[in-house]
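Hello Y.,

Per our agreement to keep a running log of every chain we model this quarter, I'm adding this entry. I've kept the format consistent with earlier entries: sequence first, then predicted structure.
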Amino acid sequence: MALERPNFEVIQKVDDVEIRDYSPYQVASCDVSDIEDLRQASSYGFQYLFNYISGQNAKSQKISMTVPVQQKPSAGGWRISFVVPSDVTNSGAPLPKSSRVEIEDVPGGLVAALTYRGLWNTKKFAELQDELISKVGELGYQPVGEAFSAVYNPPFTPPILRHNEVLIRVKKAASRAK
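Predicted structure for the entry above:
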């Protein structure tokens, strides 16, 4: 069974980088502000978000797991997010019981994605973030905001089979006058 993911259309693809046009979606997010390591922060935040989708919300509603789990750098740590399934978004996502979990709207728009396999960690994220930003410029786009990580597979998946991404919002670069 395939897990739901945010809707997008691929606008351009060059090697392992895609420029995507995303539809708006919602996420349930948790700040982990005291852990700088990406994997540790993700594991810690994951539990709060898993509890939310397991029924620790105002409706005691069980919510389907989706992909990807997103990790975005924040002050002193990371913001970990689960995508809220579209049927739950459409009917109104229930309020979390935990004060650590928030429901957020993610606007649609252009996002550059660099796909890779293997392990994901803070060092890999930093390396691929730099590579993505460089490639975005080569494709005629400008980064907007911070890059973030997206993980699609459970931790027991062999590294060679894992699907991970580094993403960043982009806009078309202004053309130079001649």
